[in-house]
Amino acid sequence: MLTIGETLIRLVLAVFLGGVVGWERERHDKAAGLRTHILVSVASALVMIVSTYGFNSVLSRESTVLDPSRVAAGVVTGIGFLGAGIIIFRRDVVVGLTTAAGIWAVSAIGLAVGGGLYWAAIATTAIALFVFTVVRPLEARIRNVHERVFLTVEADHNFSMKELEEAVASVSAVLKGLQIESCQDEGTCKVKIIVERLPEKYEYTIVEALKKVSGAKKVALGK
What we know:
8 helices, 18% strand, alpha+beta, Alpha-Beta Plaits
């Protein structure tokens, strides 16, 4: 039987390891952040503890056989539904796959902690952080694209959102965000645009494309 102290150690460690991964995701403003990763990790750890030690009273009876791994296997299945809710298809681009994979990894970390495999859980946490922090920029270099480009557009009331989206799509980029910051008396507004997945050396191509949008007067790179 697991002692209260050992149970608390496992739950706290699951919270910490899940929080470490969640903190990294929170910094990048992902759909699943700090709280989500902590809850997935600690819940997975608890399920593993219950699966392993929660049926001792039943197992003490003769002719009773239970497979402790069956409850833990349900976590792997259930986490798939959570991951599916994170993945979305937007503007011909699938978004959220890495976040969903991170949730799946955190659930495995929680299961490992709940099963007492501390070093396996710690090593997996370190590997997950390595993938999120080191492999991500390396992946961008391999793809030869910018992760995020900021542009400012000065436009009048004739500014066309439809033409804006078409201009961004014409250079194989993705419109990530748009914000109208300020409007002057003569009707000129500053529009902040965030673009992702823009191929390298296409910065000025997108500037020229945005200048052709109806209502656009001036386009500049940078925040």
